[in-house]
Amino acid sequence: HDLLLGELGNDTLYGGDGVDRLYGGYGDDALYGFLGADTLYGGAGADIFVIMAEDYAGTGGDFIRDFNVNEQDALDISDILDGFFDAATDLLSDFVQFSEDARGSFLSIDQNGGGDAYKPIAYVENNFALDVDQMANDGTLII
User: Fold this and answer.
1) 35, β-bridge pairs
2) 3-state DSSP: the chain helix, strand, coil percent, rounded to 5?
3) pTM of the predicted model, to two decimals?
4) pLDDT tens-digit profile of 69-97?
């Protein structure tokens, strides 16, 4: 159970096993929750919330509290899709989807692209109508 705090610069924060809280602070930060149901706050700046293959294989998803496309924040799921998704031949929607509830959106992945075994890996609070193709095109979803 780690608490990591970034400062004014561009920080890279790595959580460990367990339930961690990461606060990027000011600057363009990269936050890696790693294993466990972590809570990630990017703060001001163009932050990258990185979700690793180990997160997909583990239990519990991350809670992303301040994702903001207007600040050019990005969700990086490239490690999970590496070796599975081919942009030249595959439909992104067979691998990645968002579903909503009253407070935000669940990011779910079907790693093999069958479109029938989506696993929720992150909850993006206060974000609605997220479109995987649009986000991939504008760089806010890194695949």
Assistant:
1) none
2) 15, 30, 55
3) 0.94
4) 999 999 999 999 999 999 999 999 999 99
What is the radius of gyration, based on Cα positions, of the chain?
Answer: 14
CATH of 3-142, one of 2.30.110.10, 3.40.50.2000, 2.150.10.10, 1.20.1050.90: 2.150.10.10
Q: Please give the sequence-ordered ranges of beta strands (E in DSSP) within the chain, or none if there are none.
A: 3-5, 12-14, 21-23, 30-32, 39-41, 48-50, 62-64, 74-76, 96-101, 104-109, 119-125, 141-142
- Residue 55 pLDDT class (50, 70, 90 cuts): confident
Q: How far apart are CA 85 and CA 104, in angstroms?
A: 26
